[in-house]
Amino acid sequence: MKILVCIKQVPDMESRFKVAESGTWYDTTDLAWRMNEYDEYAVEQAVRLCEQEKDSDLTVLSIGPDKVKETMKKALAMGCSRGVHIVDHEAYSRQPYQKAAVIAEYARDKGFHIIFTGMQSQDQASAQVGILVAEMLGIPCVSTIVDFAYSDGKIEAKRELEGGMKARVTTTTPAVISCQLGLNTPRYPTLPNIMKAKKKELLAVSFEELLKVDPLQETIEMYIPEKKGGGMILEGEAGELANRLITILQEKTAVLK
Amino acid sequence: MTQLPKGGGYLLGSTDPKNIFTPEDFNDEHRMIAETLSRFLEERIFPRMEEMDAKQEGLMREFLVEAGELGLLGADIPEEYGGSEIDEIFSTIIAEKLGATGAFAIGHGGHCGIGNLPIVYFGNEDQKSRYLPNIATAEKISAYALTEPGSGSDALSAKTKAVLSPDGKHYILNGDKTFISNAGIADMFIVYAKIDGEKFSAFIVDAHTDGLTTGAEEKKMGLKGSSTRSVFFDNVKVPVENLLYKPGKGHVVAFNILNIGRHKAAANSVGAAKYALDLSATYANERKQFKVPIAQFGMIKEKLAEMATRIYAAESTVYRTGGLLTEMINTLDPSGPDGYKVIAEGIEEYAVECSLEKVFATEMEAFVVDEGVQIHGGYGYIAEYPIERLYRDARIRRIFEGTNEINRIIIPTTLFRRAARGGFPLKDAMKELKVYLNGETVARENPGDVVQAIKDVFLFVMGVSYERYGDEILKQQEILGRLADLAIQAYTTESTWLRTQKTAAANGQNAKLKTNMATAFIYTTVEKTSLAAREIIATLVTGSELVNMQSDLNKLLNYTPIDIISLRQKIAGAISAAGKYVS
């Protein structure tokens, strides 16, 4: 079975973000980088499938500058068989449509049975790439899955819906699957596997070579919204707190007259 | 290939920042293992620290087995025996991260550090294949039994005795060992005993052999979750093939393993101190008094800044030493008939550096956890807050792996001995310094110059001490202790400055913060250098000679103080903004 998993390197979400000088992206100085959380679920699910189906081959793909190789190595240490690094120093400025087109262009004719992606990236959050790849390849896509099973060319997945509902969905391979939080608990790469990953193939492909479409949208501005009046935290004795709360409710709201 | 720096060589020449290892030089694999460790600790160990410290049956073994599954026990074990055999930087990262886990760090270190390395470095083929694979998986838990009720620092005066059985197949061991980490859960011990009461030797002893018993669990101040017991040997039969290395060569095994053990203890301290600072910085941001977070008060800022600065210095020192050990181990060729000797001499080369970093890092940790409790105020004294555990757990690190006093003795003693053998050109260095002092001396204008001043003062005072006492200097502990402090100040300030320069040259992360921390560290340390040096010369000479020497010291220490307070405010600002240690 041939499997592809697409991952993205994103900043640690605990970082303090600033808008870059360009005004259309965040400033990347002094940021720590890691694997997009949703992609970790995708990698874990792909590795589990690989372990389930004998003689499987799992390729991990990532678009970005050289530093994304560190994150790709983590996927290799988690169990991917090989890596394809689509080298792009302008990755931050690419639109989802372009990225999807490049992935589809790469994956076309490679005979992947399943392509796993995260449901969205934590830094751009367009949630488009996986779905667009499926459309471009003309194959089904099951998005936002929280449970996954595969047997004999048939996929059965659970999707998370709003309002606490879930849906069971089936489809057949080839297909694209986008993964949501709660799907699984990603494994830690063990020390021996980290060392083995060093010896795995990591192929570099140029983004431009695969890029055959123009962007369909443009980011005009990235900005931090103006702060609305923040919450108030009252501290003190319970009795005194109650009095102050009543005063505030009387003065600033219509709850108490 | 570039020549390996000589042990202690940092004191003489200058070192190119490019030639030291720094945490900024971590490769992808180093960073990945650090991430795996962080997750393992956060998800598995920290939430169960209380259970572990309550000595819940089986928990330490369970954690060691889990650590084995992640490959965290086999970092020093060759691949063919079930390990990963990777560089010393990996082991340093593992030791650093585990440092915050108190009892677990001791269980881990006792098992795959000192309980394992004697076999890795000095075991023969048969011993390695019998024991190492089981250590890598924690199928067998190991422990290191050196200390005896009557012999701690004076380890070679051990009374445990080994006598060859009449049929020549066994050594019969009799004696007591005390304060043995992992004793209660161990399946095997590295035991030191004197063959016929004379030849100090190392043995691998199966813990389940008849006649081997352990005492009650010691009730300790800290590290409560690690098993510490006495071990008693009553006619314990040890197969002759379990003698490690050679009869009478136990001290070679013991002391060299201790060098590596000291390096790991220093790394443990760095990790524990970082955790203490993370907790304290977070607490100071959240705790309000007089309606403002206490992190905004000057005295708290100064504490946070000094904690971060000393951690940065220790971290720089520990990874520089880790780099030296890695390069040394990589260049050794133990394949010849004298392979073990090659390894022993290789490790011995950096004995001074291992002692230096152990003393500095453990005392840094003591300072950091103490200030950490202070920042927490009354809550820091309550066991519910992890800083209370860190405070107790830290205390032993200045006592074990060689007390800090023993390590202080080792530093100048080793250098004096090397000087006597021509391995450390003290006389030449002294001659050069005197020429410099008689000519036109220069003002020390930047932190790098001040580091040079500290190194010069060390050599000057060491030279003067030797001129005054000759070989008798080795009996003057008060002077030796101060010389050790000067050597530590030289090594730590230099390591910190070199790392900072290397980061700045590479336009690396947080270069400004690093420069601030390095500058603050160097300018506060040189004051300690000045004090220790003056105390030494005042006990060595009197009258006009003292006046002249005082003037020489003034020439060496000719620098203008800087505004430490505003530097610390900037450092504290960065720490509080992050809510944790950053570098």
Describe this structure in words.
Chain A: Residues 23-214 form the Electron transfer flavoprotein alpha/beta-subunit N-terminal domain. Chain A is an alpha/beta fold. Chain A is 29% helix and 26% strand. Chain A is built from seven helices and eleven strands. In chain A, α2 crosses α5 and α3 crosses α4. Chain B is an alpha+beta fold and 583 residues long. Chain B has four domains: 9-140, Acyl-CoA dehydrogenase/oxidase, N-terminal domain (Butyryl-Coa Dehydrogenase, subunit A, domain 1), CATH 1.10.540.10; 144-244, Butyryl-CoA Dehydrogenase, subunit A, domain 2 (Beta Barrel), CATH 2.40.110.10; 250-405, Up-down Bundle (Butyryl-CoA Dehydrogenase, subunit A, domain 3); 418-578, Butyryl-CoA Dehydrogenase, subunit A, domain 3. Helix content of chain B is 57%, strand content 10%. Chain B contains 19 helices and ten strands. In chain B, α9 packs across α16. The longest helix of chain B is centred in the middle third of the chain and has 37 residues, at 250-286. Chain B is globular, with a radius of gyration of 24 Å. The model of chain B has no long low-confidence stretch (mean pLDDT 95). The interface between A and B is medium-sized, with 19 and 22 residues.
List descriptors:
heterodimer, A: 257 residues, Rossmann fold, nine-stranded mixed beta sheet, 7 helices, B: 583 residues, alpha+beta, Butyryl-Coa Dehydrogenase, subunit A, domain 1, Butyryl-CoA Dehydrogenase, subunit A, domain 2, Butyryl-CoA Dehydrogenase, subunit A, domain 3, 4 domains, eight-stranded mixed beta sheet, 10 strands, 10% strand
Shape category of chain B: globular
Radius of gyration of chain B: 24 Å
- Largest beta-sheet characterization of chain B: 8 strands, mixed
CATH class division of chain A: Alpha Beta
| Low-pLDDT sequence parts of chain B | none
The assigned structural class of chain A equals alpha/beta
Provide the succession of SSEs of chain B: HHHHHHHEEEEEEEEHEEHHHHHHHHHHH
Q: What is the average of the pLDDT values of chain B?
A: 95
Helix coverage percent of chain B: 55-70%
Total strand segments of chain A: 11
Q: Biggest sheet of chain A, strands in spatial order?
A: 9-8-7-10-6-1-4-5-11
Along the chain, the helix and strand elements of chain A come as EEEHEHEHEHEEEEHEHH
Specify which chain pair forms the largest interface: A-B, 19 and 22 residues
Low-confidence stretches of chain A: none
Number of helices of chain B: 19
Specify the CATH architecture of the largest domain in chain B. Answer: Up-down Bundle
Mean pLDDT of chain A: 93
CATH architecture of chain A: 3-Layer(aba) Sandwich
CATH class of the largest domain in chain B: Mainly Alpha
CATH superfamily of the largest domain in chain B: Butyryl-CoA Dehydrogenase, subunit A, domain 3
GO molecular function, one term (chain A): electron transfer activity
Organism (chain A): Desulfopila aestuarii DSM 18488
Keywords (chain A): Electron transport, Transport
Family (chain A): Belongs to the ETF beta-subunit/FixA family.
